[in-house]
Amino acid sequence: MSLARFCRKTVAIIQPTQRVAEAAEQMREQHVGALVVVQDDLRPVGMLTDRDIVTRVVAERADATAVFVAEAMTCEPAIVRVDSSLDQTLFAFKKHGVRRLPIVDAQGRVAGLVSLDDVLVLLSAELDQTAAAVRENQGP
103: how many CB neighbours lie within 10 A of its CB? Predict the structure, then answer.
């Protein structure tokens, strides 16, 4: 199973030269807790989460209208490829200790975003279907 199923929704992105206040507004408007920070060619260069904003801007009492996304983001984000398997993706979550991974295409451009929650929902649905099949096949 590839990650293509997670590439159907528009990914919330932002440029590193934008301000953190703009990022926070975008997160609110799009109802997301993270933005993929991209270059002009849509290659990911970072991730900016609501936690990054709190710990690197608000807690430091910095002015969010003066701080650039590049100053608050987590650089060099862990990524997975569209053709990555679910096993590879789970390993990447564990290895990098993150809850969200940008998905990139063959050219390295953002194609989607997968969260640990997405994978857990998918796996629980698979387990539920498997359990139902087992129940249906029980004999008298």
Answer: 24
